[in-house]
Design a protein that fits this description.
The complex is a heterodimer. Chain A is an all-alpha fold. Helices cover 71% and strands 0% of the residues of chain A. Chain A is built from seven helices and no strands. In chain A, helix 1 packs antiparallel against helix 2 and helix 5 runs antiparallel to helix 6. Chain A is globular. By secondary structure, chain B is an all-alpha fold. Chain B is built from 20 helices and two strands. In chain B, a hairpin with a 4-residue loop joins strand 1 and strand 2. In chain B, helix 11 packs antiparallel against helix 14 and helix 14 packs antiparallel against helix 19. Classes of the chains: A mainly alpha, B mainly alpha. The interface between A and B is large, with 51 and 54 residues.
């Protein structure tokens, strides 16, 4: 199996991108405007596609190059643009008022989760030095932060962005191993995300037409 | 053989194609029935052939069918056939009455076929990454069914379902990633690293710390699809809001597909970590689900929610059985999977008939079914007794096996607790359903036009009940061999 040591140029670049991705997840967690959610998610996906490109260059893998381009086209451009057009602008979403906790509380919780991610992904989890091992706790932290964003935000659009961040976190973890992660699986995951976003767009706009706002806080009809 | 494997997964698309081509409810429905029949036939043939030969492998591990997948194929394809027949009756009645538009009816059959076909395909792959892809895709297809009626409550249920399940399954993908990490020290051919048979046969060399995390994440992630508490919150809403034959598919096929994924991870975890850790995890989630399911069954209201909470309870029972382990535990778990699937399909289909006749899903507004509509009322009553584990139905036998497994594997406390919870469940559930079948009969106009639809409404109920009765009195030698063979795959 090919290995990237953390000291090589590609390893450093991968680590840097992973840190950027984590910071953008924090930025999303710390903002209150729908426009920014989408913008931070788009930026995160662009960095992710850069990371995929670095891995592709290091491993000389054509499949990874394809994935990098797909990530840029779909997650970096396609989903943010359509979310902005179809959701933020059409539904006239501005400030997210449906937060369960204050921003500072959720940022502190996010910090705690990041520490937790480092705690659980101790080196003995990763035998024989996996590619750029520093990426593993970072990707775990991004997954947890996305989950946190889904918990503290109750608006359906915000929850959708939270899920996409979780997905980015998993993808970041997969990139480091993609030299052996089959391409069909990666492509299938992509297809799932696109189909998922489409179907969620339908539900969110359907719900908004019926309720004054599509906040999950108002989804109270079904209980018990 | 490979052709049969493909056929089993692709055949249910017949209904999808017919509906996409513009067929109305009856035509599309019968096309779906034919497809489901072919899928069931292929599954049975595969299963019989599997008894005498090594597991089928192909396409670099993407295709892998052993007896365990064969057993689940049989269950899911059987349920698909029952639900497809039920769909003919339900959807043509809804179309005739104008409650569903033609577009909605066509969408229903498009997504019903897609949903069934994706679930069957996910049982046929040995690649754990592809398993995730197919399970997530089946979530999306079924979400469209849940939101089909486009009321605000059904859209709400569909949103809740799609966001919670997608998140859950993504967690399972993270678990798959950690399983992959735990194998990074092995020298396997690169394209086989993510395939179950290779990971299972090299389980002894996996890194235990990473594997432990992988198993936990997989149980939480796929457990979201199974409806294990506390990740079950989407389940009652989705089951209550979907059209009844789709609820039958969710409860009797989808939940089992999730459990299948957990069993695959469990086998690897047991082989490397021993019994203790996997048992603790499964018993904790299993008992939590039973308790939550039973508590919410006490509340009277929407009968489809009642059936849904009963599914939470039964998935908990299967998790507990897997947790007990041993020969009896595994045998009980598999037998219970099949029994519960048939019983729940019967219940949801008869519930669908009731809601078509009386236009309500509230249990309190339905009385005297046994006198007014004897077949539906009888199926509802016998189906409830079956699902509650009374003799002579199959679930009695499988629950007894599971309790015996508990006494053999873990001492008296847990099986006694299980028995007590089952007793509470019996009272809570039967209280509501006996109220529905007894009492003052209400006049009901027959919702079906034409003989075909009427037969399609009744046939799956009778077939399902007969199967439950047979399984309660006698386990056919073939089924016994199949279950034992499936267990051998896991040890």
């Amino acid at each position: 199996m090919q290995n990237l040591s953390a000291a090589s140029a590609a390893g450093v670049l991968l680590d840097l991108s992973a840190v950027m991705i984590l910071l953008l997840a924090f930025a999303c967690l710390g903002s209150k405007l729908f426009n920014r959610y989408v913008a931070y998610y788009g930026a995160q996906s662009v960095v992710l596609s850069f990371a995929a490109g670095v891995a592709a260059y290091a491993f000389h893998s054509i499949e990874l190059w394809i994935l990098a381009v797909l990530t840029l086209a779909i997650k970096g451009i396609g989903i943010p643009v359509s979310a902005r057009r179809l959701l933020v602008q059409r539904l006239d979403l501005k400030r997210d008022a449906a937060l369960t906790t204050g921003l500072s509380t959720s940022l502190i919780a996010g910090g705690a989760l990041t520490a937790f991610a480092y705690l659980v992904t101790k080196p003995q989890l990763l035998p024989h030095g996996v590619v750029a091992a520093a990426v593993v706790p970072l990707s775990t932290a991004v997954i947890l932060l996305g989950g946190l964003a889904m918990v503290v935000r109750r608006h359906t659009v915000a929850q959708l962005i939270g899920w996409l961040i979780v997905e980015n976190g998993v993808f970041l973890g997969a990139i480091t191993l993609v030299a052996t992660f089959p391409f069909i699986v990666e492509a299938g995951i992509f297809l799932d995300i696109v189909a998922g976003v489409l179907i969620m767009l339908v539900f969110v706009s359907g719900l908004t037409r019926r309720l004054a706002s599509a906040s999950a806080a108002e989804l109270r009809e079904l209980q018990g | 053989m490979i052709i049969l494997v493909i056929l089993a997964a692709v055949a249910p698309l017949a209904g999808t194609l017919a509906a996409a081509g513009g067929a109305r409810a009856r035509r599309a429905g019968w096309a779906g029935v034919a497809g489901a029949g072919i899928a069931l036939g292929s599954a049975v043939y595969l299963l019989v052939a599997q008894l005498h030969r090594a597991p089928l492998r192909g396409w670099g591990g993407f295709l892998y069918v052993d007896s365990l997948s064969g057993f689940f194929l049989l269950t899911v394809a059987g349920v698909t056939l029952l639900a497809a027949v039920g769909s003919v009756a339900y959807l043509s009645a809804e179309e005739d009455s104008g409650r569903l538009s033609r577009l909605q009816v066509r969408l229903y059959f498009v997504f019903f076929g897609l949903f069934a076909s994706l679930m069957l395909a996910s049982l046929e792959t040995g690649n754990l990454g592809l398993l995730f892809v197919l399970v997530e895709a089946s979530t999306l297809a079924s979400a469209a069914l849940v939101g089909l009626e486009a009321r605000s409550s059904s859209l709400e249920a569909a949103w809740k379902y799609v966001i919670i399940s997608s998140f859950g399954v993504t967690i399972a993908l993270a678990g798959t990633l950690y399983l992959f990490y735990s194998a990074s020290g092995l020298h396997l051919a690169p394209d086989l690293r993510l395939t179950w048979p290779y990971l299972f046969s090299h389980a002894h060399a996996l890194a235990p710390a990473s594997l432990r995390l992988a198993f936990l994440l997989a149980v939480v992630g796929y457990g979201t699809k199974v409806g294990l508490a506390p990740m079950h919150t989407w389940l009652p809403d989705a089951h209550a809001e979907a059209p009844s034959p789709a609820s039958a598919m969710l409860s009797a096929a989808l939940l089992n597909t999730g459990m299948y994924a957990i069993i695959r991870f469990l086998a690897i975890a047991r082989a490397r970590l021993g019994d203790g850790f996997p048992r603790g995890v499964l018993l904790a989630f299993g008992f939590a689900s039973i308790v939550i399911g039973v508590l919410f069954m006490v509340r009277r209201g929407n009968f489809k929610r009642l059936f849904a909470y009963s599914s939470v309870e039964h998935m908990g029972i299967i998790a507990v059985a897997l947790g007990f382990g041993g020969v009896l535990g595994l045998y009980g778990a598999l037998l219970h999977t099949l029994n519960h699937a048939i019983a729940k399909a019967v219940l949801f289909l008869s519930g669908g008939d009731v809601s078509l006749r009386y236009q309500t899903r509230e249990a309190a507004r339905v009385t005297g079914l046994l006198a007014a509509v004897p077949v539906t009322g009888g199926a509802l009553m016998l189906g409830s007794f079956a699902v509650l584990g009374s003799p002579p139905f199959g679930l009695f036998l499988s629950e007894l096996t599971i309790v015996r497994a508990g006494f053999a594997e873990s001492g008296p406390v847990l099986p006694l607790l299980l028995l007590a919870l089952l007793a509470v469940a019996f009272v809570a559930f039967a209280r509501t359903t006996t109220g529905m079948v007894t009492g003052e009969p209400q006049a009901s106009p027959g919702p079906y036009r034409g003989r075909g639809a009427g037969v399609a409404a009744v046939a799956p109920l009778l077939v399902g009940l007969t199967a439950l009765l047979v399984l309660g009195l006698w386990i056919p030698a073939g089924l016994d061999a199949v279950i034992r063979h499936s267990m051998a795959v896991l040890s």
